[in-house]
Amino acid sequence: MTRLLKKGLFFALLTLVPYGALQYFIITNYDPIYTKLVGKHKFVITGVSRAKIGLSPMILHEEMELKAVPQNLAISNLSTPYGPFYYAFLQKKITIQEAADHFHLISVSPVSIMDVDDTLTYSRESHDLIYKLQSVSNRPNLEYVFRIPSFEMLHNQIRLSLTESQMVLKMHNTGWMEVNPKGDFRMSINYIDAPYRPSLEREEYLRKTISLLEKTGNVFLIRMPVSSSMLQIEKNLYPNFDEVITKIAHESSVPYLDYTADGDSYEFYDNPGHHLTGKSARDFTRVVTKDLKKILSED
Amino acid sequence: MTFISFEFLLFITGCLVIYFAISSRWKWLWLLVCSYFFYGYHNLIYVPLLMFSTVVDYWIGLKIGSTEKPILRKRWLYLSIFVNLSLLAFFKYFNFFNGEFQGLAGYLGMRVSSFQHNYLLPLGISFYTFQTLGYSIDVYRKYIKPEKHIGKYALYVSFFPQLIAGPIERGRKLLPQLSLQVSFDYQRTVEGLQLILWGLFKKMVIADRLGLYVNQIFDISNNHQGPAVIFGAFLFGLQILFDFAAYSEIAIGLARILGVKLSRNFGNVSFFTSPVHMWNNWHITLTSWFRDYVYFPLTRSNKNKWASHSALIITFLITGLWHGASWGFIIWGGLHGIYLAFDHITAQSRNQLYTSIGLEKNSRVRRLIGILVFLPFNILTGFFFRASSTSNAFTLIERSLDWSSVYLYIRTVGAAELLLIISLLIGVEFVNNKLGKRQIHHFLVEKPTHVRWLFYFVLTEAILLLRLSEVEKSPFIYFDF
């Protein structure tokens, strides 16, 4: 048996070392999720994909002369709506260190506090791999490197670079995904593809997320700009969403910045528009920065 | 826990460490505990059912063996058949037949109860009931003496490597091995690991990746048509072959490590030249079970060849029904029975035709012709096997005939993925050719060390790099039966 164990150990090293090295190379260069699974952060941005794509942490850092670069921890409607999984994830990601100049941006949208009807609550994100990881803040995150097969990622990257892709995607280390469409291309989407309903449980987790992040800095609720057609869709989907968020903001004593009124002044890469192009994301982040500076100086 | 899960890795490690540490006297007990733990981990509620089936057939076996009176022996056998088939009938077929009966009653204007039970199909029930039933029949036929040790009999029924999805073992083959007078053996363990590695490669790299294309095609809402649908059904045939063969190989490998030899369940074949070729190489233990316990009894009283062909069709209708409670599976089985009967009827004349044009039995050209002739049938039956319902199967067949749009590439899978799949299939076919009739461990044992290690390295890296993500991966297909 000793012979078997020795050979087994040798074989494990022989296979796992090159595998790990290759995985690490592919993931750190091509995986849009990996940056959100390493390290702890003083400043965070949360929410779904419109925040992932629409808010540039580097611009926040530069314009506000922050001591650290915020990390954009928003992923998507399927992965990071407000709920117990995302809450537990954020608990592991923030640095527990109170400081007056820390702040966090919590992006809100109707689907981020809604659930799909006739399913178990939280079911749309409960199977996400990021919530199965033991650690989401190790640097490097070896568990993720070894667990996620990267062939698909590499395959997609090669395919995108070889074919005439209609959009240029760049994942920044800050967790911001910059998306720029080529020419006049706009991606048509079917936004509402499931029977969503307001979720009291998710609203409660939004409150809990605010309380969590308030322990380490100022919290701002942000509603990202969307096109007027998307705004109408969201009004039909969740008519009193604005009132609900305003109430939560008031109860938690945090500012609520609603940028939906100016939606048509920005450029979106999809139709109906709710994901900002790279240029508009930069412009929008500067607008947010100005408002944050104003609020923070008034305090 | 499936064979390809972290939980199973922990389970098997613990099982093996203690297994080889304890005395041979208690190895059966430890394996029995592990087997019940393994089964209960899936669903604790159905453990009593497994126990019930075990105890009933153990007792019936003793009763059959305790008397020489044919009429009494037969009555005990009938009881075993009744109990085992009743379990299957209730959990697997009740809702289907009841639903059909309700439909017929409604058509005739009759009112009947609309009762349908909500019990899940107990995992492995189709396999272990057949295994225990086969035991009872073998005791009745005096092929085997009844097992007196209830613990070893319980282990025979619940032996975890083959409990959920076979191979279906005969009592006369497996029971004598369960005295387990084994100790750790390096070579036997290596052979078991080789089988497991080969099985993991077939499942995690080939079968699962084939599933990416197949799932898209068989999702009726995707509206695929023409060659893509035919190609999807073709790939499904390969997917289920590799998926199930992989499970069997892993099961055989695990058992090998434990010092138990399980029956071979699949040949080293990806493409079948005829229905006979297929059923001699596909789910061999099930085919031989139906041959010995259904087909032979049906033909015993009437050796007439038309009776034989009818018995063949009936046997395969039942085989189809064994796979699942739906008209799709019955059609699948029936078509195979009809084709087999046709194959038997025309065998001599086909052989004469081939010989007259110089194509001897094992010629490559004849083999290729056989594959090309049998393939369309295999694709057709694949629709009924895989589609989510019989009506969907017919819809897909209809769509496959619509060639207004001709394509194989589907955006969600991609050309590179297709190329990868085809390359992998060519690679496996190359290895199959080298293997011939041997299993992988018999083939590797004669190779030099560096070749073996290169083989292990390539397979392991392929598994690590090409497996699907935890979200995408699929369970073994035969768990559904």
Could you state the order of secondary-structure elements of chain A as H and E?
HEHHEHEEHHHEEEEHEHHEEH
Greatest interface by residues involved: A-B, 22 and 21 residues
Query: In angstroms, what separates the terminal alpha carbons of chain A?
Result: 70 Å
Mean pLDDT across every amino acid position of chain A: 88
Q: What is the number of independent domains of chain B?
A: 2
Helix content of chain B: over 70%
What percent of residues of chain A are in strands? 5-15%
Please state roughly what percent of the residues of chain B sit in beta strands, choosing from under 5%, 5-15%, 15-25%, 25-35%, 35-45% or over 45%: under 5%
Q: How many β-strand stretches of chain A?
A: 11
Chain-averaged pLDDT of chain B: 90
Give the CATH H-level superfamily of the largest domain in chain A: SGNH hydrolase
In words, what does this structure look like?
The complex is a heterodimer of chains A (299) and B (481). Helix content of chain A is 44%, strand content 13%. Chain A is of the alpha/beta class. Chain A has two domains: 1-30; 31-298, 3-Layer(aba) Sandwich (Rossmann fold). The mean pLDDT of chain A is 88. Chain B folds into two domains: 6-183, no CATH class; 187-480, no CATH class. The radius of gyration of chain B is 23 Å and the shape is globular. The mean pLDDT of chain B is 90. Chain A binds chain B through residues 1, 3-4, 11, 14-15, 18-19, 22, 127-129, 132, 147-152, 155, 158-159, and chain B through 20, 184, 186, 189-190, 414, 416-417, 453, 456-457, 460-461, 464-471.
